[in-house]
Amino acid sequence: MAAAAVTLSPLTSAAQTTTPELDLGVPTTAATVRQSQRVNGGYALMDALRLHGVKHIFGYPGGAILPIYDELHKAEARGWLKHILVRHEQGGTHAADAYARATGQVGVCFGTSGPGATNLVTGIATAHMDSVPMVVISGQVPRASIGTDAFQETDIFGITLPIVKHSWVVRDPRDIGRIVAEAFLIAASGRPGPVLIDVPKDVGLEEFDYVPVAPGSSVPKGFRLPTPAADEAIQAALELIRQARRPLLYVGGGAISSGAHEAILQLAERFQLPVTTTLMGKGAFDEKHPLALGMLGMHGTAYANFAVTDCDLLIATGARFDDRVTGRLDGFAPRAQVIHIDIDAAEVGKTRVPDVPVVGDVKQAVEALLAASNGDGAEGRTEAWLERIASWKHHYPLVVPAAEGEIAPQEVVVALQELAPDAFYTTDVGQHQMWAAQFLHNGPRRWISSAGLGTMGFGLPAAMGVQTAFPAEQVICVAGDASILMNIQELGTLAQYGLPVKVVVINNGWQGMVRQWQESFYGERYSASEMTGGMPNFERLAESFGVRGVLISERASLHQQLRDAIDHPGPAFIDVKVRRNENCYPMVPPGASNAQMVGLPSHPELAIDTTRTCGHCGTTTASSHLFCPNCGAKL
C-alpha cells in the first residue's frame, strides 16, 4: 500500500545533513527546538506531540498514565491540543484510526496499563491490517516494578509486537523527544501503520533537562525511505497496457493512502481502462464514472467479478490480493497477465506472482506511467471489452427489492445516498457494511470501514474520530443492531462533546452475515445469531445518553424521518426496522471463483466463456486453465 500524504526532505543542519525530515506542517525554529528546560517526562511527551502538529488525542486515564494526564490537563489549558474522553479504550483506538483515515494525518490515542492497554489491542490490530498511521501511547507500571506482576502490569510491548510497525518502552525520559519523532516518522512513511510507545509511570514524573526534537530529525538505525519505482518496471508495465485488449484496473487502499485518485482517473481515461476497487479502495475512483465497476470480491458487483475473471491484463494498484477479493485464487484473473504496483515489496508476489512487479508509491508510479506514455491512448483497443462490460452492467445490476412489505435494508442505504451524498460514511461490519459498500458512492477518504480485520464495533467510534477532525461536515455511521452494541457506550462521548454524528442502525434482529452463512452453508441451523432476546429499545437508550433517538418502521415515512434526523443539529441515533430475512447478494461462496456468484438473475448467454480452445493443437479445456493439458502451450 502507498505512503501517507507527507513530505520527506533532508534537513539543512550540518549535524543532520543525511537525516530525512517529516514535514507535518508544523513551524519549528532552532529556538523552539533546541532550547533546554527543566521539565518532567509527561511535559516532554506533550510538547513533543505539540511539535508534531497533534491537535486531538483520544483516550481514557488510569493510574499508570496519570502523570501524563496531569501534563495533558496543563497542555489543554495552554491551547496546545484537545483531549477527547472516550468511554472505552477500544473506542479511542478506532476514533484515532478514523481520524487518520479521514485526514491523512497520524492519529493519536492514550490508554493506561494492564486492562487499559489490552483494551487497545483490537484497535491496533485494525489499524495494522488496514495500514493506518497511528501513535498509541500506553501507561506502564514504574520501571522497578516491570516484570514483577505488579498491579495492572501487562507486557503490552510483547503483546502487540506482531501488529505494530515498531514499539518502544521508554526507560529514560531523555529519550522521549527522540522516540516521538521516530514514532511519527515510522507510522506515516512507506506503508503506513500503528506504532506503540509504552511509558512507565515514574518516567512521566522524573525531571530532566529537556531538549525538544524537531519532527523528522531523529531516524532509527536501519530506517530507509522507499525508493521510486524502477524505470525498467514502468516501461515494462506500459508495454503490457499498450498490448492489452481486456485490461482491468484493480485499485486498493494504497491508492487512498498515497492520494493517487487523480492520477488513476487520468490513467483510466487515457487507456480506457475499466476500474474496480476493493472495500479499502472505495473513493479512489468516482463510482458514477462510465469506467467504474464498483467493488469486486465476495459481495462485489457481478460485472466487476465477471471482468476480473475474463480480463487479459490486471493492473493491481495498492491492493494485496486479499482472499475476500480473490475468491478461489486459481480462478482469480486466470487468463490475465498481472502488473502489481505497491509500496511494500513484501506484498508483491506474496499471493499472486506478477508478470511486472512495480515497487514504489502508487501515486508516483501511476504518474510515471502517464509521463512515459507520451500521450498515447487506447486507440480503440478496449472498445469491444467495454461493450461486453456494459452488457453485464445492464443484465446484472445491483438490485433493490420491490417496495412492498417491510423496509428492505438496501432502501435505507439508497435513501442515505440521496439525502447525504457528500457525507463521510463509517460502517460497522456485516451485511449492512456490504450494502453500504454496494450502494454508497464516496469521494476519497470519505469511506471509512474496517476491512482487513472486520472489527465489529468500529463504526460509532470511527464516526466520532471523523467528526472531531471535521466538525462542520456531515458524518454518518451505518451500523447493524449486533455491531452497534459492541461500542454503544460511545454515545456518551457524542453527547459530552456535542459531536453531531448520525448513527443509522439497519436493524434486522440478527447477526445478519452470520445468519446468512448459517442459512446458506450450515443447514439453517441458527446457532447463537438471533439478537431479539435482550435487544434494547434503542430510541430510549439513545435518549438516556442525551442523544436524539428516532425509530423508523414504516416505508412511507422513511425518507422524511431520515431527512429530519440528518438535519438535526446534534447527535442522533436512528433505529430502522428492516425485513429480517434479506440476504446480501451477489455472493461468492467459499471455495468458488469470482465468476461463480449466487443471487444473480440468469443470463447464460452473457456469462464468461467456460471453455477455451488451444490455438496450437485445438484441444478444448476449462477456461480457468492457463496451459493446454494436451500440448502444454500457454492459452
Topology:
Blueprint: E1 7-10, E2 20-23, H1 30-34, E3 37-40, H2 41-51, E4 56-59, H3 66-77, E5 82-85, H4 89-103, E6 107-111, H5 115-118, H6 121-129, E7 134-140, H7 156-159, E8 166-169, H8 176-188, E9 194-200, H9 201-205, E10 207-210, H10 231-243, E11 247-251, H11 253-258, H12 261-271, E12 275-277, E13 292-295, H13 302-310, E14 313-317, H14 323-326, E15 337-342, E16 356-359, H15 362-372, H16 383-395, H17 409-419, E17 424-427, H18 431-439, E18 447-448, H19 459-469, E19 475-480, H20 491-497, E20 502-507, H21 512-521, H22 538-545, E21 548-552, H23 558-567, E22 572-577, E23 611-613, E24 620-622
Parallel strand pairs: 4-5, 4-6, 6-7, 7-9, 8-9, 11-12, 11-14, 12-13, 14-15, 15-16, 17-18, 17-19, 19-20, 20-22, 21-22
Antiparallel strand pairs: 1-2, 3-10, 23-24
Helix pairs in contact: 2-3, 2-8, 4-6, 4-19, 10-15, 12-15, 13-16, 17-18, 17-23
What does this structure look like?
With 635 residues, this protein is α/β, with parallel strands linked by helices. It is 33% helix and 17% strand. It has 23 helices and 24 strands. Residues 1-32 have low confidence and may be disordered.
